[in-house]
């Protein structure tokens, strides 16, 4: 345990060279934390022939165990796992990619911000464009992952949040409900201007969702947004937001719109 913690908290950032010779490639995966034969056996689980002769889901098992292996080896030995991780992230089976998507935030904590920015962010970006079954993995832990990034890198994802409103199946309302839940958490990571410019339009769209469960979570989202903007140093944003709420919902010709305004106020009161 002591040796594992030593490796985890060691900030040294070792990277691999893509032009390694076979001998150098072998040496790049050598470490002294666990028996080397055991690690070699684990790394061989991505070999396609193993899936045909041993277990068709062996790559999924490998992906499931990867954060634990990374935790044991420590971030200074990430070079031993990097190639295997990239191989799993591009696996043809969506279940393998889904497994990695659900744990990428845990791996980011283990690796630290430098390795995360260099090696995990490209994989994370790929998952964002994947099937809904994979995207839901990064969506459920969107806040957990983004909070580990530097502010400038984190802001780049503001432009992509809108894409979560589009799903492979429009009836997948749980996807939109999860988005609303994550946006509530993301309010703490962004400035008042970013909230008003990027998160506000998504929140209003979710408030008009066809599914009541999505709308209820969105009412809480808008309520928390009002609170966040009210407490910000610039009051203009909250005034504009309140005016928009009145215009869009309170004065809506449809009773459902006026009811939305009441529900938002009700959440705020509680």
Automatic annotation (TrEMBL):
Gene from which the chain derives: Ppp4r1_0
Domain of life the protein comes from: Eukaryota
GO molecular function annotations of the record: protein phosphatase regulator activity
Name assigned to this protein: PP4R1 phosphatase
Organism: Baryphthengus martii (Rufous motmot)
Tagged with keyword Repeat: yes
Chain spans, region Disordered: 1-29
Record's GO cellular component terms: cytoplasm
Keyword vocabulary terms for this entry: Repeat
């Amino acid at each position: 345990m002591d040796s594992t913690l030593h490796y985890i908290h060691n900030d040294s950032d070792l990277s691999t060279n893509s032009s390694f010779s076979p001998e150098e490639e072998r040496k790049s995966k050598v470490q002294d934390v666990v028996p080397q034969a055991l690690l070699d056996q684990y790394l061989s689980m991505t070999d396609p022939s193993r899936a045909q002769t041993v277990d068709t889901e062996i790559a999924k098992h490998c992906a499931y165990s990867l954060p634990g292996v990374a935790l044991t080896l420590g971030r200074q030995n990430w070079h031993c796992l990097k190639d295997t991780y990239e191989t799993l992230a591009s696996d043809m089976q969506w279940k393998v990619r889904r497994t990695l998507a659900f744990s990428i935030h845990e791996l980011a904590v283990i690796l630290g911000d430098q390795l995360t920015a260099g090696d995990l962010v490209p994989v994370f970006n790929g998952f964002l464009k994947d099937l809904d079954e994979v995207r839901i993995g990064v969506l459920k832990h969107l806040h957990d992952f983004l909070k580990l990034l530097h502010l400038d890198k984190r802001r780049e994802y503001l432009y992509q949040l809108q894409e979560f409103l589009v799903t492979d199946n429009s009836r997948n309302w749980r996807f939109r409900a999860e988005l609303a839940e994550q946006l509530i958490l993301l309010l703490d990571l962004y400035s008042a201007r970013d909230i008003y410019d990027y998160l506000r339009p998504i929140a209003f769209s979710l408030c008009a969702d066809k599914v009541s469960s999505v709308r209820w979570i969105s009412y809480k989202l808008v309520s928390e947004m009002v609170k966040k903007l009210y407490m910000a140093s610039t009051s203009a944003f909250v005034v504009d937001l309140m005016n928009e709420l009145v215009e869009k919902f309170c004065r809506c010709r449809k009773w459902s719109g006026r009811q939305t305004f009441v529900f938002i106020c009700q959440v705020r009161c509680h």
